[in-house]
Amino acid sequence: MRLGVIGHQGYDELPEILRTLFRLAPTLGIEAFLEQGLHDVAGTGARLEEPSQLDGLVTLGGDGTLLRGARLLDGRDIPILGVNLGRLGFLTSCQSEDFEAALRNLASGDYVAQPRMALSARVIDQSGQARKQWRALNDFVLHKGGFARVVRLNVSVDDESIGTYAADGIVISTPTGSTAYSLSAGGPVVVPTLESIVLTPISPHTLAIRSLVIPADAEVCVEANESPTELLVTVDGQVGTSFVKGEKLKIRKADSPVRIVRFPGATFFERMRVKLGWGGLPDLDQV
Fold this sequence. Notes:
Layout: E1 2-7, H1 14-28, E2 31-34, H2 36-42, E3 46-47, E4 56-61, H3 63-73, E5 79-84, E6 94-95, H4 99-108, E7 112-116, E8 119-124, E9 130-136, E10 139-144, E11 151-157, E12 160-167, E13 169-173, H5 181-184, E14 196-202, E15 212-215, E16 220-226, E17 231-235, E18 239-243, E19 248-253, E20 258-262, H6 268-276
Parallel strand pairs: 1-2, 1-4, 2-3, 4-5, 5-6, 5-20
Antiparallel strand pairs: 7-20, 8-9, 8-19, 10-13, 10-17, 11-12, 11-16, 13-14, 14-15, 16-19, 17-18
């Protein structure tokens, strides 16, 4: 098994996790390929240079590291095993203390590679050319810069206008991303296997503008009605570009999903209860 490994170097557990990986790799038939930074930490293993040759990808960190791994794979049909070294780790597959068991299950095929819908986006400039394009597992966010003022965004779905949003910005998310920024902005929780696109305004300045869930095969287009200050497009909260009046942000379902490793017994609602406190406070007699 050709296993790519990427990670966040800010965690104290990282060297021990890498030692566990290289201790188990020969017995499990794993050949590890590490990104540059991890290769320097481990001091061994091959370098990760061509993702298309991988059979699997391990991300060591938190949700942000897994999102980075998904962009690295760029639509390739490769399962991602996310190992949580951080606090929340809502998207990840296991905690650091469970890594050895998870790695054995991954090598033996005892897992489910759950497909998660992704989004693709293009920024179309004033001449009609696509100057930027990306894939996102969580969301695309169009928002203002550092100035405390409202922006006006024309939003349409399949070329039909659904209104002008007076807000601080807008989040266009997948079902997976519905529990991220969209949720914090007041959007709904969508079960990640229910394919759809969620439009959530950020701090809307009217009661008439609220979250909207649309079919997965729809195309969303957002334009800046006015742009007194520079707007920004961010992708999964990690990369992005500037955005000006006259440009269009077009978003649709990506051609291929992201496959996240899940093990028997782990359910979405269990993760909601444990990670996000879903369901409110526990019963007093259980405390």
